[in-house]
Specification:
The complex is a heterodimer of chains A (about 450) and B (about 500). Chain A has about 450 residues and is α/β, with parallel strands linked by helices. Chain A has 2 domains: about 65-75 and about 355-455, Alpha-Beta Complex (Aspartate Aminotransferase, domain 1), CATH 3.90.1150.10; about 80-345, Type I PLP-dependent aspartate aminotransferase-like (Major domain) (Aspartate Aminotransferase, domain 2). Chain A is about 35% helix and about 15% strand. Chain A has 13 helices and 15 strands. Chain A has helices at about 10-20, 45-60, 80-85, 90, 105-120, 130-145, 165-175, 195-200, 220-230, 325, 340-375, 400-410, 440-455, and strands spanning about 65, 125, 155-160, 180-185, 205-210, 235-240, 265-270, 285-290, 300-305, 315-320, 380-385, 395-400, 415, 420, 430-435. Chain A has a 7-stranded mixed beta sheet, sandwiched between helices. In chain A, strands 11-12-15-14 form a 4-stranded antiparallel beta sheet. The longest helix of chain A is centred in the last third of the chain and has 38 residues, at about 340-375. Chain B has about 500 residues and is α/β, with parallel strands linked by helices. Chain B contains 17 helices and 13 strands. In chain B, strands 1-7-6-5-4-2-3 form a 7-stranded mixed beta sheet, with helices on both faces. In chain B, strands 10-11-13-12 form a 4-stranded antiparallel beta sheet, with helices on one face. A two-stranded antiparallel ribbon of chain B has the order 8-9. In chain B, helix 5 runs parallel beside helix 12 (about 345-380). Classes of the chains: A alpha/beta (about 450), B alpha/beta (about 500). The interface between A and B is large, with 203 and 206 residues.
Chain lengths: ~450, ~500
């Protein structure tokens, strides 16, 4: 099945027009020694057969009661979101190069940019990047271009930033000579302390990354950290969870006082919580917003509102002089596409939920995580790792290694959280868990009962 | 700037969603329910220190569910798409995106699968088999599915080439060669990997100039990035010699998979001498372009680059599939995404490939090529100038309008805009930059002869209009929601976000 509509009459007529005997003649410019015989691939399946195959594979994966977050959050997605986003007119269109025939996609992106600016408090947003991790890497590269006061290519990277984001930043930005200085966190509160930055006072750094809430789910003291950075000519890259922005201060207002009061300089993060399913980790979308003064340093596509020759409002891709198809080796990034379809879904999600709906989601998620922590820490052998304030995720310490416990829970259909042993061995038997708004009190009780049972057995 | 009325009949116009908003309106059935919501909100907020709380709520639309559905449905109707129009956008492979691929990739178990959960074998087996199929198709030894788009696949490829040279202590190899006609991402990628770029000329027949290549290679050569068939719509016939020259100079060959559709099951990059390839699963393997993403840019490598593949990969031990990470590949160039790349796109490509099967792959290349050659013949017979008239077209071909430009002062842009009025998405214009006033036309294998004929007829009609009524072209399009847009104003008076008044 190759979705080829040609009848034998069509083929004959077409070959005649071309003036060749057979389709094989059309490949006669390829050196014959390069032509390959039949490939070792499976035979074709009909749609019905492939449907059965995929249903079997999906059944193999099963369904779990999930308490893992760690950068991918299980939120309720209203039915309308993907019912509209998968309409063929959105789904099967391409990058809006022909603006007049792509006003739908372009207006969606403009509305998305507007909503992202509203959420983050920033002045401009791009049309999205691949995902949260790669968005941070791009933000680091952007900071080097934007921070004219710094001559270094060094970035301060607290260990409370998602450890995979740190790895991705190394992999992507490292090739351009950008280095990262790891900043340790406070063991009691699970956040980055201002004092830990004092040793860098007077050194030349181009940027600091501040994740709010941080990877542990804890709240960073973003105001004093931002002020310190600005006093030292260091740009602030904020990594934020968009759902949390309903409750937590907008990054444009980070910073307490004085001459340095100007908020974060670049805001980025993972857009998945805004209507994108977990789906094995992608496709998601990364967002990025900044202040107007840095707009020309920002990577990725941007849509602007303008007028047509009749003076009627319309939308087009703009600031393309930054991009690879114009600037080639001098472009701000090699990025070509955005994650258009996911942005479409997120724009529909934000429209349906509004500020009030997102706040309800945030509140319910915080509440459920509170309840989860209370239920789990009442079990003997479980205690909270940190004392600080948190959003909708928490680190718990078990009295034994986490991995076997998680395996036993998975055997009962429960994903109990993420084992932090690999990323933070110094924390001991640490588990990162999250309960978003989709969890009920029953779900939490199910988890708590199962964990109590597992821990009551000898390890 | 004139304000748009809300919902004007069947005319394609739609106001911004913010103008539909009224304070206090909400699609509240979608909110999580709490009997004592106000009290809980207060309790929860009390846990956040005052100075870390949001002071002013974000201004998002306050609209009903129906308003939202109507608004975005209407916006969708303001797009050209494969599902509604012929979309012969050269170098983008806008083929039909089979519905089954979407339906079965969105089974509830797949949708709910957390990326950090257990290695459940359903999804993992699909990804492993996808890796294996892509290896076979490209003639490579290993495949990683993590790059999230073609440009990230390119990045991974060049980063692996650099890592390879570094691992041998060959530190001077930082120069990447690209042919003049290369896609803009090629030089941009080389820069992102900390390499410098040297352009190589093509000869009059569209092949790489071997003399220029021989002169360009040397001890600084890291590698060459090539597309084959090239962006000029012709097969690079001297590819074996190109490979020999670059390899003898100590460089590696990178295959840009943008045009893989043309040679699927016919020729394999590995057999041509390439050391690393990226594939655009959203082109060759029919995953949706989604209005500009998400894509997926899987990379494949030969033996020399195996240790450097980006992670994670899916490995197979006995009959069990598992993630391969830093521990398995300590020399990997690392992670490029938060989890494992665009998993859902990969899943759609897998389903498509299982439906094509062994024989379907070859038919894709054959019929994509048949369609392109047929259109090239019809258009040249009607007086259009092909950029390489003495060459076979690959799956795409270039028409140059330089003659029409000098005779009638008509540009490729004018023809592109006029095609919209005829109900066709325009071909790619002004790429490759090498050919003046060019249209790069790629019909793909999924279009019928009838639709190709309609497109050719439209081109011929437009050619007549150039002489009879050129103003129809100069002021096109006439049937779209907007006329030509003022791009200069867009860039000069930046309006990138709606802002509430006051």
């Amino acid at each position: 099945m190759a979705f080829i509509p040609h009848t034998s009459d069509d083929i004959t007529a077409m070959l005649q027009v071309i003036g060749v005997q057979s389709i094989a003649n059309l490949f006669d410019e390829i050196p014959s020694e390069l032509l390959v015989g039949p490939l070792a691939l499976p035979a074709a399946l009909s749609e019905m057969e492939v449907g059965r195959l995929m249903a079997d594979r999906a059944a193999c994966d099963g369904r779990y009661l999930n308490f893992i977050g760690a950068g991918a959050y299980e939120h309720y997605i209203p039915a309308a979101v993907w019912a509209i986003a998968t309409r063929g007119e959105f789904y099967s269109a391409y990058t809006p190069y022909q603006a007049e025939a792509s006003q739908g996609t372009l207006q969606v992106i403009y509305e998305y940019q507007s909503m992202l600016c509203a959420l983050t408090g920033m002045e401009v947003s791009n049309a999205s990047l691949y995902d949260g991790a790669s968005a941070l890497a791009e933000a680091c590269l952007m900071a080097v271009r934007a921070n004219r006061a710094s001559e270094s290519r060094r970035v301060l990277m607290p260990r409370t930033v998602n450890p995979t984001y740190i790895k991705v930043s190394h992999a992507i930005a490292g090739n351009q000579g950008i280095t990262f200085e790891s900043v340790d966190f406070d063991r009691t509160e699970g956040r980055t302390l201002l004092q830990s930055l004092h040793r860098y006072q007077g050194e030349d750094f181009t940027a600091i990354v501040l994740q709010q809430p941080n990877f542990f789910g804890n709240l960073e003291e973003v105001d004093e950290l931002t002020d310190w950075a600005h006093q030292n000519n260091i740009l602030v890259i904020a990594v934020v969870n968009p759902i949390s922005l309903a409750l937590l201060s907008a990054p444009n207002l980070w910073g307490l006082s004085g001459v340095a009061k100007r908020g974060a300089d670049i805001v980025c993060g993972e857009g998945q919580p805004l209507g994108v399913p977990l789906a094995s980790g992608g496709p998601y979308f990364g967002f990025m917003a900044t202040r107007m003064q840095y707009v020309r340093q920002m990577p990725g596509r941007v849509v602007g509102r303008t007028v047509d020759t009749d003076g009627r409002a319309g939308f087009s891709l703009t600031l393309q002089a930054r991009e690879q198809h114009i600037r080639r080796s001098k472009a701000t990034s090699n990025i070509c596409t955005n994650q258009g379809l996911n942005v479409t879904a997120a724009t529909i999600y934000m429209s349906l939920m509004g500020a009030q709906g997102i706040e309800r989601v945030a509140v319910a998620s915080m509440r459920n995580t509170d309840n989860l922590v209370a239920a789990l820490t009442s079990i003997k052998g479980v205690r909270p790792a940190f004392a600080g304030h948190k959003f909708h995720e928490a680190v718990l310490l078990l009295d034994r290694p986490v991995a076997p416990v998680l395996a036993k829970l998975a055997g009962r259909g429960i994903l109990g959280g993420l084992d932090l042993a690999e990323h933070y061995p110094e924390l001991g038997n640490a588990l990162l868990a999250c309960a978003t708004e989709v969890k009920t009190n029953n779900d939490i009780e199910t988890y708590a009962n199962a964990l109590a049972d597992v821990l009551s057995q000898r390890s | 700037m004139s304000e748009l009325p809300v919902h004007p009949g069947l005319e394609l116009r739609e106001a911004l969603i913010f103008s539909l908003s009224r304070p206090g309106r909400a699609a509240s059935t979608l909110f999580p329910l709490h009997a004592d919501a106000v009290q809980i909100t207060e309790q929860v907020l009390a846990q956040i220190p005052m100075h870390l709380r949001r002071r002013i709520a974000p201004v998002l639309p306050e609209v009903s569910e129906l308003q939202t559905v109507r608004h975005f449905t209407r916006l969708s109707q303001m797009n050209f798409s494969i599902d509604t129009q012929v979309y012969p956008l050269g170098s983008c492979t806008m083929k039909y995106n089979p519905k089954a691929c979407n339906t079965y990739a969105m089974l509830p178990e797949f949708m709910a699968r957390h990326p950090l959960g257990p290695e459940t074998q359903g999804f993992m087996s699909c990804m492993f088999e996808l890796q294996e199929m892509l290896k076979e198709i490209t003639g490579m030894r290993g495949v990683s599915l993590t790059p999230m788009a073609g440009a990230q696949g390119e990045f991974a490829g060049v980063a692996m080439i650099r890592a390879y040279h570094r691992s041998r202590g060959d530190l001077s190899r930082i120069e990447i060669l690209v042919p003049q006609a290369a896609h803009g991402t090629n030089p941009a990628t080389a820069s992102m990997c900390g390499c410098s770029v040297k352009e190589i000329e093509c000869d009059a027949n569209g092949d790489v100039d071997l003399g220029a290549l021989q002169a360009a290679v040397g001890p600084n050569t890291a590698g060459i990035m090539l597309t084959n068939p090239s962006t000029l719509g012709v097969f690079e016939r001297k590819i074996v010699q190109v490979a020999r020259i670059v390899h003898e100079a100590g460089g590696l060959l990178y295959y840009d998979g943008a045009n893989l559709n043309a040679i699927l099951g016919k020729v394999r990059p590995g057999d041509m001498g390439f050391d690393v390839v990226h594939m655009n699963l959203h082109k060759t393997f029919a995953t949706p372009h989604g209005g500009g993403g998400p894509g997926s840019g899987a990379v494949g490598v030969g033996a020399r680059l195996l240790p450097f593949l980006p992670i994670p990969l899916v490995g197979c031990e006995g009959s069990r599939y598992r993630w391969m990470s830093e521990r398995d590949l300590p020399h990997s160039i690392g992670r490029l995404s938060g989890f494992m790349g665009n998993a859902g796109v990969n899943l759609r490509a897998y389903i498509y490939m299982r439906m094509l099967g062994r024989d379907g792959m070859v038919r894709v290349a054959e019929f994509a090529t048949l369609n392109a050659n047929y259109m090239m013949k019809r258009l040249t017979a009607a007086g259009f100038e092909a950029a390489y008239p003495n060459r076979r077209a690959s799956h795409e071909f270039i028409i140059s309008l330089r003659r029409e430009n000098s005779l009638f002062q008509i540009t490729a842009m004018d023809v592109a805009k006029r095609l919209l009025d005829y109900g066709f998405h325009a071909p790619t214009t002004y790429f490759p930059l090498l050919v003046p006033e060019c249209l790069l036309i790629e019909p793909t294998e999924t279009e019928t002869k009838q639709d190709l004929d309609r497109f050719c007829d439209a081109m011929i009609a437009i050619r007549e209009e150039m002489q009879q009524a050129p103003e129809k072209l100069l002021t096109a399009p006439h049937t779209m929601p907007v006329r030509r847009l003022d791009d200069v104003r867009a860039a000069r008076e930046l309006d990138l976000a709606w802002k509430p008044v006051g």
